[in-house]
């Protein structure tokens, strides 16, 4: 399916690339998918902007400038944080899928981005690492590539770290029912904003579509059977949006 992507220079497959190729450093796939919402956001943005890149898989957070993934290596220079990378690429490549947005649209996009990245993100993490239904899948899938002898000690250690992070952030202080209600409010707001438009800002793909897809695909398309996933599947327009993004930008590769 053809999506209304930015008209950017993207060489045909196999053609020599002009200038340095961006290296996108992200986690290794799990269940054949990019399971980190922030790295999926950035990969999706690169695809919608038509900027060539090569993906490198790593778990070495100590090599990441901010201790988190994703980051890119652009001409030998590391740039971290999905949003800062996008700003860097808009500036250096002269490609801006958001150029046509007015101030009200930018304000709405920012509010939605914060909803996903600074609120729903923690609910997603809770549903994967703390909710027993999520942990059942994650404790297997996420540790698949870890050497067998490390898997035993690493599982409880990492779960404890995430639990502590979610307690300090605050979401783990709510009951499962309260967390689900907070998720419902977020998804309802996103579904209301999307309405019957093809993309979040209308007919054209913009950065917020990459953000939303990065998070929702990681709820809807992964084999982690939680109440959060069931809730998200109850919003037909959000599901249809994710399917359009997936088919249009990833084709058969997902
Ligand atoms: N604001 C950052 C957030 C990145 C982030 O939270 N990455 C997570 C994976 S989705 C991570 O690296 N977590 C590892 C850790 O915190 O130790 C961005 O937009 O890139």
UniProtKB/TrEMBL annotation:
The lineage of its organism: Bacteria, Pseudomonadati, Pseudomonadota, Alphaproteobacteria, Geminicoccales. SUPFAM superfamilies: GST C-terminal domain-like, Thioredoxin-like. This is Glutathione S-transferase family protein. InterPro entries: FAX/IsoI-like, Glutathione-S-Trfase_C_sf, Glutathione_S-Trfase, Metaxin_GST, Mito_Protein_Transport_Metaxin, Thioredoxin-like_fold, Thioredoxin-like_sf. It comes from the Bacteria. Transmembrane segments: none annotated. Gene3D superfamilies: 1.20.1050.10, Glutaredoxin (3.40.30.10). Residues 183-245 form the Metaxin glutathione S-transferase domain. Residues 37-133 form the Thioredoxin-like fold domain.
